[in-house]
Amino acid sequence: MSSSVQEIESLFDRLGREHYGEGVTQSEHARQCAALAEKSGAAGPLVAAALLHDIGHLIEQAQDDYGNHRHDRSGGAWLAERFGPEVSEPVRLHVAAKRYLCAVEPEYFDLLSPASVYSLEKQGGPMSPEEVEAFRAEPAHAEAVALRRWDDEGKVTGAEVPDFAHYRGLLDSLVRA
Questions:
Q1: Could you tell me which residues are beta bridge partners of residue 175?
Q2: Residue 154, Cα to own-chain centre: how many angstroms?
Q3: What is the separation of C-alpha 36 from the centre of its chain, rounded to a whole number of angstroms?
């Protein structure tokens, strides 16, 4: 197992039991999102992105009970040092994807959990028309939108999903040399 995967697993072991305003822990949420990505037939790098999308909450100090509201950027940058853009870019863009979906699908807002509604305000609210166009120009925008939808669904208390060990081989295969 690579040192990067060991480092990630250590972060989840130490901090994954923490909550961020949802009814599940960081670890439960991450594993649920990855399981949803797998179930949908997503490519390996996007499954890894789903598993690691909130790593910024684990590497940055929480700003309040809902975590770090810039976790997308810090997590994406941290992952870019260890993985290629097919993993790091959907992570970097997953908060922007929430803002995008609120702008282009008004009914999407009603699907958000109370914690996501709170963080949406902290993260800039729905995108402006100019921000929507800029987001659509991002190469990984479609992957970020898919990830965002799994992010919203992966908050089920007591859901049975694979443990972190299930993803070790995938992560190892994607780590930069």
A1: 83
A2: 10
A3: 12
Taking residue 105's Cβ as centre, other Cβ atoms within 10 Å add up to 13
Q: What is the pTM of this model?
A: 0.92
Enter the DSSP assignment of 142: H
CA angle, 82 as apex, 78 and 88 as ends, to 5°?
Answer: 60
Low-confidence ranges of the chain (pLDDT < 50): none
Return the pLDDT at 65.
55
3-state secondary structure of 1: coil
Q: What is the pLDDT of residue 18?
A: 83
State the amino acid at position 19 in one-letter form.
H
Q: Which amino acid is at 97?
A: A
At 64 the pLDDT is 52
Residue type, 7: E
Q: Which of 156, 153, 98, 150 is nearest to 127 (CA)?
A: 98
Beta carbons within 8 Å of 86's beta carbon, 6+ residues apart? 43, 45, 46, 49, 140, 143, 174
